[in-house]
Design goal:
Blueprint: H1 2-13, E1 21-23, H2 29-49, E2 59-63, H3 66-70, H4 72-76, E3 81-85, H5 86-94, H6 112-128, E4 131-135, H7 145-151, E5 155-157, H8 163-171, H9 175-185, H10 191-201
Parallel strand pairs: 1-2, 2-3, 3-4, 4-5
């Protein structure tokens, strides 16, 4: 019931603006299905009370666990959108806390394991025809932006100070150029090689 309180609040807010429901820390399809069922229950309750809401409100997943990445195709079939939480995804994938000096070297988006995970998540969203965005530091990383273009990311969520720089970098790359870069870096086996190639390709 506590969760439904939050869902009802989001539904009521959707009558006044562009509101979407994003489910965090998803690890299996049952979690998404349960939320969608609860949303329908809340809609029925609001209908009974004559409360307005957006009946077409979107329900999506914050993809931030390795489990969600592995079943991205299954999730994409039942979600309206994906938002990739790269900070947590990197940490969980690499079993590394960026605040711990001894393993901080593992915490970066250039790791092949992270690259493969992102490519899979974005690719499955593209196949399903749903929007896929990204939040987190990687979305504003000047070296990493062309990688995300190549993977097919639809939306970059960055902090206000990073908007102009990110926009400039995005405008400098064609999809064909980004695709060629992806073909090259996905063959590398270490993050050092990947980062060096991205630095060499930077515009």
């Amino acid at each position: 019931e506590e969760y439904k309180v939050q869902l009802r609040a989001l539904l009521r807010a959707s009558a006044f603006g562009d509101v979407e429901i994003m489910v965090p820390l998803v690890t299996c399809i049952d979690e998404i299905r349960k939320v969608k069922d609860l949303v329908e229950e809340c809609k029925a309750e609001l209908d009974a009370r004559g409360v307005k809401y957006n009946p077409n409100i979107k329900v999506g997943t914050m993809v931030e666990t390795p489990a969600a990445a592995q079943i991205a195709d299954i999730l994409a079939a039942e979600c309206d959108f994906f938002s990739i939480g790269t900070n947590d995804l990197i940490g969980y994938t690499m079993c590394a806390d960026r605040g711990q000096d001894k393993v901080a070297y593992l915490y970066n988006p250039y790791q092949p394991a992270v690259l493969r995970s992102l490519q899979r998540i974005i690719g499955e969203a593209n196949k399903a025809g749903i929007m896929v965005g990204m939040c987190g530091e990687a979305a504003a990383d000047p070296l990493f932006i062309p990688v995300l273009i190549g993977f097919g990311l639809d939306e970059f969520s960055v902090s206000a100070p990073s908007i102009l720089k990110a926009r400039r970098i995005i405008s400098q790359w064609t999809k064909a150029e980004a695709d060629a870069l992806i073909e090259k870096i996905m063959q590398f086996k270490t993050d050092t090689e990947v980062k060096a190639a991205l630095e060499a390709a930077a515009k």
